[in-house]
Design goal:
The chain is built from nine helices and 15 strands. With 337 residues, the protein is an alpha/beta fold. The protein has two domains: 139 residues, NAD(P)-binding Rossmann-like Domain (Rossmann fold); 170 residues, Dihydrodipicolinate Reductase, domain 2, CATH 3.30.360. Helix 4 links the parallel strand 4 and strand 5. The longest helix has 20 residues. The two termini are 27 Å apart. The relative contact order is 0.16.
């Protein structure tokens, strides 16, 4: 959908729940975009959402897609609904900011990509941690500090699983739930981005150690990037503890310690140096605002998105390989993307 230079990007939120509200708050801070519509099946909840955040209320996402003032949509629904809604949005000519994971399976991701390419619309994946200050600072250091290629990486997401926004579908593998697909995909995506190349093989252990549920609540994934590098991802949804989100990156000419609550440190010559900018206390909110600015810029300039559909597909391919590896207790080749 073409957008005039002075027009604000009209945004529709499909999935006006917990994270849909986070997107609505972020949009208030983004120049060149405005919330014009939102969708949720429950009548009272969508009326309350739009009374608080603005926009026209819809109970059927298809009706929202028919709204001519909607130029782009963010899809923040249960994972198993992503394919149907993303394909419909693309066919309606809407640009897409699609929450991670792209879809529960590689096959579904490929169908989304095919629809997006046929329609010629912009698709960006909502891997929001790539827009946090620690990730930005670490990535810049890898590019500008002469650190060379990544050789060994470790990325962790260790957090409370039963958060207030946890839903029954999160507990079901058949609906795209589980800690790895829901939250562990964050450190997986970070590690893939740092590596700058596609993972080729995965070995994984996945299980439930803290809760009684069909889907995983913890896992450890080992990735190989051909013969160039290896990485490990820890995806832990504990019952009691304190949030850990960090990365350790061993490069050819230095190491980086990336802590999303305490900042970034560069290690060289047996010394540590704090790198700025380091952290911000409300980093999830600020990261989401940067994500939206990047998406709006990509739509306006018709430039490649910061997190592409191929990136989202590859992350899901790694998860799919990890699930198979855990079942079969062997290393599995990642489906090429």
């Amino acid at each position: 959908m073409a957008l005039a230079q002075d027009d604000a990007l009209g945004v529709g939120i499909i999935g006006a729940g917990h994270f849909g509200a986070a997107h609505a708050r972020a949009l208030r801070q983004v120049r060149g975009a405005r919330l014009v519509a939102a969708c949720r099946q429950e009548a009272r909840q969508i009326e309350d959402f739009c009374a608080l955040h603005g926009g026209r209320p819809y109970r059927d996402y298809r009706a929202l897609l028919d709204d001519r003032d909607v130029h782009a949509v963010v899809i923040a629904t249960p994972h198993a609904l992503h394919e149907e809604m993303a394909v419909a949005a693309a066919r309606a000519g809407k640009h897409l900011l699609l929450e991670k994971p792209m879809a529960p399976t590689v096959a579904a991701c490929r169908r989304i990509l095919a629809a997006v390419r046929a329609a010629g619309v912009t698709l960006m994946l909502g891997h929001t941690m790539r827009f946090s200050l620690p990730f930005i600072t670490a990535s810049r250091a890898m590019a500008e500090q002469g650190m060379g290629r990544l050789r060994l990486g470790q990325a962790r997401m260790i957090k409370r699983w039963m958060e207030p926004n946890r839903q029954p579908w999160h507990l079901q593998s058949s609906e795209g739930g589980g800690m790895l697909m829901t939250a562990g995909i964050h450190p997986l995506d970070r590690l893939l981005a740092y590596a700058g190349q596609r993972a080729t093989h995965v070995s994984a252990w996945l299980g439930t150690r803290f809760h009684v549920q069909p889907a995983d609540d913890c896992g450890v994934i080992l990735l190989r990037f051909g013969e160039e590098a290896v990485g490990q991802v820890s995806s832990i949804g504990f019952a009691e503890g304190a949030f850990i989100a960090d990365d350790d990156l061993v490069c050819e000419h230095g190491v980086l310690r990336v802590d999303y609550f305490h900042g970034v440190r560069l290690g060289r010559g047996d010394r540590w140096q704090d790198l700025a900018p380091g952290i911000e206390p409300d980093w999830p909110e600020r990261a989401l605002e940067r994500e939206w600015r990047a998406f709006v810029r990509s739509v306006r300039e018709r430039s490649p998105p910061a997190v592409s559909g191929d990136d989202g597909l590859h992350a899901v391919a790694c998860v799919e390989a990890a699930l198979r590896s855990a079942r079969e207790r062997r290393e599995v080749e990642v489906e090429p993307c």
